Amino acid sequence: MSASGPTPPGKPQVKALNCPGCGAALTLRTFGNAVTIVCDSCHSILDATDPNLQILQQFKVATDECRPLIPLGTRGKIRGTDYEVIGFERRTIQVDGIAYSWHEYVLFNPYKGFRYLSEYNGHWNDVSVLKALPEVHASSPPTVRYLGETYRHFQTAKAETSFVLGEFPWQVRVGESAVVTDYVSPPRVVSSEQTGQEVSWSMGEYMSGKEIWKAFHLPGDAPEAVGVYENQPSPLSADTKNIWVAFAVFLLLLVVMMIGCDTLARNEKVFTGDYKFDSNQRAESSFVTDDFELKGHTSNVEVTTSTDLNNRWIYLNYALINEDTGQAFDFGREVSYYHGYDSDGSWSEGGQNDSVAVPSVPAGRYYLRVEPEGDPGYGATYYSVTVKRDVPQYSFYGIALLALLLPAILLTWRSLSFEHMRWAESDHPPVGSGDNE
Amino acid sequence: MTQPAGTCPNCGARIVFRWSSSVQTVCEYCKSILVRTDVDLQKVGQVADLPPDSSPIQIGTEGAYNHKGFVAIGRIVYEYELGSWNEWHLMLNDGTSGWLSDAQDEYAVSFAAPGRKLPEPGQCHVGQSFVWDNQRYDVSTLTTAHYRGVQGELPFQYWDKKDVAFVDLRSETGKFATIDYSDQKPVLYLGQMVEFEDLALRNLRAFEGWS
Description:
Chain A is mainly β. Chain A has 3 helices and 26 strands.
């Protein structure tokens, strides 16, 4: 800075720098905040705090083996603040001898400071440093509490830095490692990173590639996300919640409907008659009842047959006939009751009574025509016929309940299998999830 | 609350103290470090140019903390093995003085908290817990730094200090504490981590290409 007067506000600091390793021009984007800068041309890691940019390390990479998806220098808006991508690193963990790598982007705003993006298989996280310490509970699995929310331990792994590019606000080296522990509560993840004695905490929030592409105005489409990521919000969890809320609403409606219909139904006994049927008599058995009045709006009619059958059956051909129009509702009912003892104990089949609802019968004067049939030799059967108008029906509610319950259960099951896929990748795989032990 | 002015004993430039309790200031023109005595200003040293600066805060930046307005009137630049940070000396509108630390754009406001029991130098380790004012703090970092430069008004003489040991502590509630071992007696500062937005800062430094 100039020594000739008061610090001039707002004067830009233009700094032309060249890599001492290969002479390539370097761009410094963080106004003196960077601690290390990596030359893109020769992969020298340079001490950005040293005016001579001393080379700290040089690393070898296969040509273009690893390029940032968001080029360094790109600006984008994250949660309303402009940030510039200034650094990029790849970090690698080993699980069962297999290397898994993710990428981290260092973002910078000269007022708001640093922020990070991480990317794994098309899954992104917006990461910032925590201002308060989370509470760690050494339960099984361990949890942390932060700002009133509980995060479940997902994975602990040693992450090695395997590629770096650009500027970093810390001393970065290829080959250095830190123990990274993730605790998840989708869509957020709280991570601790331990190097030696020091532990730093950060919070990530899941972002889709599409959101990142939009935020940084990147050309083309974001790479498809593969699999389920540790803090990826389940696309079904909101739906699952909604469908159960909808279910509860419909259930309530159904109950209201049921109570309403129950109280509003006339449930009126309009006719009853006692009869005797002798199957031994060869005479014509059919007869008609006295007529009766069906009142009110078009609704159902319940015909109940009560018998004294004992290890026998009768069959009744019924016709409900409108006296004025002649319109007939035909239906047949078999009533049978059998019981006895066998090696398993007592048994019984059927019953002495039968009830049937004839739907949508208009008001008017009606009578029943009844034609009983039975095995010859049974002798006399005594039975009574009762006719009730506008009787509440409950089977409809059972069917409706089932129709509502099925999609809810199906969605819940799918949501659970999403969670199963998530946790299968963790240190705590669900029982029966195969090879991740 | 501008206080009576004096002149720089080195270059004759006008020196104005914004805060009545300031003990030291730096001449804006010749970078002489001036200590206020009862009668006049005494030159005690000279600062080198400040290192390339990253802080968006500057002398004269105004803001608010806990419903009190403040203005940045001085600063200390510390350097340590992993870089540097700024401690901005704040004058609050109730006449007290506080500190706004800016470490790579991570901000914390703190105030001297005398009278608490503090660990002896070299007795702290990372993870250790202390309780002050019913708040638990965990040691997060131990830092050895040296002062790289000063600017503006400070509440004490701070021009000839060498290595300084700091112990930084954090809490689960976002509170922040620093023990400063630069003097014979350690000094505790208590405060909290703050978001840039929450300070409502005005008169910030401009960065080319950023608004």
